[in-house]
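Re: the 122-residue chain
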Amino acid sequence: MPRVIRFELVASDSRRAMEFYRDIFNWEFDEREHHGEYWPIRTGDDAEQGINGVLIRRTESRESAAILIGVTNLDESIGKVEANGGRIVLPKLRVPGVGYLAYGMDTEGNTFGMVQADAPAT
């Protein structure tokens, strides 16, 4: 059963967003690891229940927060999204070191990402 593996927050002002979440939740942002406009977020001890996330720069195609769901077959999952009334808003793309990623929108307008880990994508 696919599970939520990460969340993504979007921000027009990344510094302001980092300060906001640091001040409220003590979240840690790896500012060394920004890959352009992408900063990993550590939300707590890995031994505790929960997931980590990333902060990304707001763009025209990414205007709201999203969850990322791990899937074993991205092409199959894309087909299921479309067959069940959703739509794909960002087609499958290769992410070096991660695998493959696509974003969908559900029947209620919520955006979500689907990630297929794949060693050959590195």
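Residues 8-60 form a domain with the 2,3-Dihydroxybiphenyl 1,2-Dioxygenase; domain 1 fold (CATH 3.10.180.10).
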